[in-house]
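DATA CLASS: polypeptide
GOAL: derive structure tokens

***
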Amino acid sequence: MRVEYSYLLKQFEVKEGEAKVKYVDLPKQANVEAILTDIKEILLKTGQFTLGQPVAEFEAGFAKLCKTKYAVGLNSGTDALFLALKALNIGSGDEVITAPNSFFATAAVIAIAGAKPVFVDVNNEYNIDAELIERAITHRTKAILPVHLTGNPADMPRIINIARRHDLHIIEDAAQAVSATIDGQPTGSFGIAGGFSFHPLKNLNVWGDGGITTTNSRELSDRIRLLRNHGLKTRDEIEVFAYNSRLDTLQAIVANRLLNALDAITDARIKNAKTYDDGLSDLTDHITLPPRKSNVKQVYHTYVILAKERNKLGTYLAEKGIETKVHYPIPLHLQPASKYLGHQEGDFPVCEAQAKSILTLPVHQHLADDQVAYVIDSIRKFYRK
């Protein structure tokens, strides 16, 4: 699979200056003038560069968005998950169940907390297959860490039932799923904790790294607040040796601006995804779209298809000036970092088969209608030939 990954890096590259449809348009994401005004008026006048009032305002606004009692701003989505694990005392000798098709950080936080990542295969929505979870539970299992991949929530009702039967924590990796819902209930509110990322590629993004943990537990919220700030009880007294994982005031200022724009961002991505669905739905001999549930609001951090002749299609689209990605070409259990877990190719067949066929199309909020139409037309032309 590493050979294929090298091939992808070379073959899917659009030459500089020739992109007609960018995978992401970072300059357009930044409302520069308005944010710089906020920085000047708030940050430079107060001098509160860490944990200032904008952080508290963002935490309150984000908790309201997720319908949770608390939200704790942190320096990354990785720490949003990691500190939740640490605050729950999950570590050496423990096991945490998760999916093998996520970004590296999902498994990494489990490992660096001292626990063992236990993978469960995925379903046709690219999310952890809830039907397979119980057979992976042992006496060492302490938590389930489902990933809402692509901005599509995992099967939380079923996962909650499993967790209750086995007295397990649920920590949601909602890094890709801000404002996604199941029956109106937002991601980040189903488990004991939810972790979100505000990396520049995310739907709600800041000017660097940032993250947040949501919870309805006052105890857990207080513990994470302690852990994010060196374990300081007061300025001069340290309660536990801990971490430096504060959300910078500057990033909170950016996040507050984007939080107000999130509905428009989400609506635009949903609209683009619907256009793709309609334009590609009859190519069933060549392309597979994941199922769409009527009670689920997907927010399309990524728009992922299964494509026959994926590598050739990706190369063809690159030649047409269309940037695409693969999320992710090497499953977590086959990564060099996971070698100690003893997995082999074939252990999670659905995940592995998807990794060889998945292709991510641009779906960001700044796409023009004619750009989306151009992507669809290019894909149709590829398969017609």
About this structure: The chain has two domains: 2-28+262-384, 30-256.
